[in-house]
Amino acid sequence: MPVASPTQRSTHPQLPAGFRFGTSTAAYQIEGAADEDGRGPSIWDTFCAEPGRIADGSSGAVACDHYHRYAEDVALMRRLGAGGYRFSLSWSRIQPTGSGPANPEGLDFYDRLLDCLLEAGVEPMATLYHWDLPQPLEDEGGWLNRDTVDRFADLAALVGERFADRVAHWIPVNEPNVAMMLGYGTGEHAPGWRLLFDALPVAHHLLLAHGRAAIALRAAGATSIGCANNHAPMWPASDDAADVGATKLFDALWNGMYVEPMLLGRYPVDLAPLMEDLVADGDLATIRQPLDFYGMNYYNPMRVAAAPEGAEMPFEFRELLGYPTTERGWPIVPDALREYLITMRARYRAALPPMVITESGCAYSTGPDDHGVVDDQARIDYLDAHLRAVATAIQRGVDVRGFYAWSLLDNFEWAEGLTQRYGLVHVDFETLARTPKRSFQWYADVIAAQPQHAG
To answer: Hey, what CATH topology would domain 6-453 get?
Structure first.
């Protein structure tokens, strides 16, 4: 592990002793091996096969080939010195049809990965659902079908029994708001439905799946269960009452609809009338399971305006001016992360468990130069500023326990295909060669400079 000099220490963000630094990935984005060892098709395999769905026509069929190269990738984690690794389990690899007996070869892969991580001193954080629903379940209605919640609870019991002895932290569902809104609301992600407000049952079923999985995991011996909710500060486009009202509504749909049921056992007051026909007796108590940590995925604020009369939806999005952007076009506003963390603490107080930033990162396409160096200074600047924002929030009294950078590797970035690179490690998608970027070494230096590493 790199050892920072005292001079270097003073130039890096400083987090409290015991703060956990990690990296994040997702199964469909890195594993590849789509047709190997009994894995069944997922909604993303189907979606990628439909012309025009993916920006560059690519898919996750090979991705980073992590399925075969996991030992090399874990060796990179050891070199990085990060104490945590957040990854997801491929439901289609474990249960090819989404139900029934487990696929032994799928379970064996995650056995090998977990043992390799632990040998490297890296603490596993496993996500059960990172958007790759088995296609046979989608054929039965997917997350519009309440029966899918039962299938997910079965999956949680199965993997809990197998892996709870080695997985330190569990996240049942990654970003249920994104899965609902982009997958079923606007159709930009798999399975590609464009249902608009008729997608609301998906939100309830994903929340219910979160609760049912948490119960099953605890029964199997899991001791640390959280979430990974995507949160974005919502800023009105103007002070006009229509813009403020549209912003309040979208804030409830994007943020409140997930945090309030999980922490308070209720839907936001503005949305409750839309949800009441979906909520059966006991559902909200099931969703409100005790959480050991509250995971927040953060990328950027959104600027919201009222849509013109007659529009499909009552809100629309405006460019956030005056801020630099990533290559994805997303504004870089680290201070909004600090502000949101402080707001979460003020709003939810005793109901809010310790927080973890379960994802944050940026897209820049910088590749190796003639000397093989990937000089991604823009990513260093992004991570530095966001870690400092977290440090400031902690100084203001917010209990934040960790930061997981998205992502360890350049990977298949959903509808953007292979066109957006978020990794600390560059992946040549032709040769699959890994090249740690300058940001990788910077992150290693930051970790080494923290109090628990100080000599």
So the answer is: TIM Barrel (3.20.20)
